[in-house]
Amino acid sequence: MTEGPSAVLRALNVGVASLWVAVCAATPEFIWRGARVVASHLNAADLASALLVGLILAFCIEPALERFRHTAAQPPGPQSYNLVFRAAVGLAFAFASVCLHDAITAFLASHAADDAVRQAGLVAGLRLAGAWTVVPFCVALAWLTVGRARWRWVFAVLALASPGLAALMFSWQLQDWITAQLPASCILLLGYRQWSLGPVAGFFRRNVQVLLWVSPIWLIGALLFNWAGNQLGLAWTQLYTPGEAWIDVRFYLGWAIGLSLAPVPLAERACQAGIGK
């Protein structure tokens, strides 16, 4: 009777970890686009309001949440750094979070007074989030279910097909699909090998190294391919413009951040055994 709830909990853990990675992959793009909007009309009043909210978060909300997290386990021990440093770090992160909130709000709504325009901005933001999270989510899901004999091939195929699914859902051009499919497939396949190369808890962090190898090689190779096509007068070889390459840099940066921050569900230790099957 306990196996059912345990299996459901494991599935939820895998889903949350995959979503964690995916959300981080989309975050730099929201920051970049929103910050450009905010920077165009930033003034002293905006800075003062952000600072005020940051003070409340740093000195009240964040300490209360930290104390709540530690209450169930054990009281927080003595701090190894002084109070001024701790407050400064907390204030800096709180201030950054307020600015990020304003940036995303500005990007989604574009400060439009018309509700229809705001609604359109929200839809555009949701489409952007979906387009940037589909592939990292499916890849992480495939990695974390590799030890499940019933599902590993299903999720592996889903991960391989995820760039194509995103292309269909979000009306990508052929070049967009190619520039997502090839590196994502390499990252997926090389990522499977990381299960056998160390502890389970470090699996995502080992895949950060995979990303940091594959993405620069891919981006540089694609730009060189573009250059060679230009020299030969072959217009069909143009995979990237420099601006589009910069978009993918932000995407891979966010994906790497997600893998470095997201926890690996330790209940999935069977994944290591599944590699050899």
From TrEMBL:
Respond yes or no to whether keyword Transmembrane is given for this record: yes
User: So where does this one cross the membrane?
Assistant: 12-32, 44-62, 83-109, 129-146, 153-172, 210-229
What highest taxon heads this organism's lineage? Answer: Bacteria
Q: Which UniProt keywords apply?
A: Membrane, Transmembrane, Transmembrane helix
Q: What is the recorded name of this protein?
A: Uncharacterized protein
**Phylogenetic lineage:** Bacteria, Pseudomonadati, Pseudomonadota, Alphaproteobacteria, Acetobacterales
